[in-house]
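Memo to structure team: turn this sequence into structure tokens by end of day. - J.P.
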Amino acid sequence: MSVKGSHCPFAAHLRLEIALSAALDAARRSLGPDPARALALARTLPPGPETSLLIGAAQRRLGDAAAAIATLAPLAAAQPQAWGVQFELGVALGAVGRTTEAEAALSRAVALNPRSVQARLHRAGLRAEIGDLEAAVADYAALVVEAPDQPPLWLSYGHALKTLGRQTDAVAAYRRALALAPDFGEAWWSLANLKTWRFAPDDLAAMTAQLARVDLDEADRAPLHFALGKALEDEARYAEAFDHYACGNIRHRARQPYDAAANTAFVQAQIDLYTPAFFAERQGSGCGVQGPIFILGLPRSGSTLVEQILASHSAVEATAELPDLTAVAATLPRPYPASLANLPPDAFAALGLDYLQRMSAQRRTDRPLFTDKFPNNFMHAGLIALILPRARIIDVRRHPLACGLSGFKQLYAQGQAYSYDLADLGRYYTDYAALMAHLDMVLPGRVHRLSYEALVEDPEAETRALLAYCGLDFEDACLRFHETRRPVRTASSEQVRRPLNRDGLDQWKNFEPWLGPLKAALGPGLL
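Reply from structure team:
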């Protein structure tokens, strides 16, 4: 008796398995180059652990970390020994700021698969982000031994070493990255971004040669221009330096557009909303915890110095420059800030608690006060007053031309899109000054303004006033801030490890002939 294959149940099942296996393989292969296709293919497959992992991994790569967590969290609970599930969940948790859970998941992934460079690299980066720098450096140190020919790995290792204040070791790591990839623009910029370090003549020649290459990757050009600008500025070749800063800004701006009108409209919406009556009607409705000290303003204004001074006090813990307040604001109904007018009174306390819970992952001590030095928090200063009425708010102000030029010379790791054009920089500073002036009017005395120039001229008087505003007794260690050893992640990390000096006060004057667009945007009222 013969049976045709088309009528055999086993043959049909086999064909189905082969088809499903092919679809699964196709989805896996698409995950890296085309996650949207991988997601579409995975959704055609029968439910199961492998399908869920593919869906969650594709969702994460497509930028929907929340959906990825919803997919992966039940799978991770059901399969605690599956390292790939733990890894994908950890990365997704890190993307939404759930850093404590993310570190735990990534550590489980590493324990389950110690040979996974990818899992260990992500864990190292997360540890650096949450301030566990010693552990991050240990992770990177092991990784560079196992994979010594990876320039980006040496770069990340250098960043962690720099944050810990190990400048010599950081330079060596950046140099190793450049030895492997002489055209690695980000490594050149990382050396320049040490601020207190100077390039040798051979370095200038090497950077110039790289920029002359017609085949240089566009992603390397902007950081090389910024680095060469810093090198030439140190040689007092200001016209050439400005040309390179300008070229770097133009190239980076092309990759990061900015809407100045939208920013001005957002500021004006706050000015229109925040009246004395608005705050009076909501008085007492926020979270009454005293702990946070917000240090805000514009980047490159001296905020890291103020943070270092406060971190030298026995009652204050410095955390990091993190957008947790921005994340809280993002949970509010749109349009924000107008939606604040419709929130019930208890919502403000809940928002304050949400912020404190997010920041708890950054705390390493039981000191009663802690700093949050994210400069752009000035955009949410009114929200701070509503949700954390006992928080301190310090507005660090620097001469607008000095602050503007310093921002123009800085290549930021992310954000600050306004800073790559002098006219936009001036308009952004104007928006900032207008918002803070309005808050001074409707909440008199709520914000402590600290002038960087005044702090340099009379550090003791300004430090005493700062501490008094924060409700703290004076401690002499705050004047010896450069002796305080702690991780510092910002571009000023090496500068605040040195005694206060006047070196940076008038540097902007070397570039004054080229600051016309900045001056015009600022207007006579701010100059």
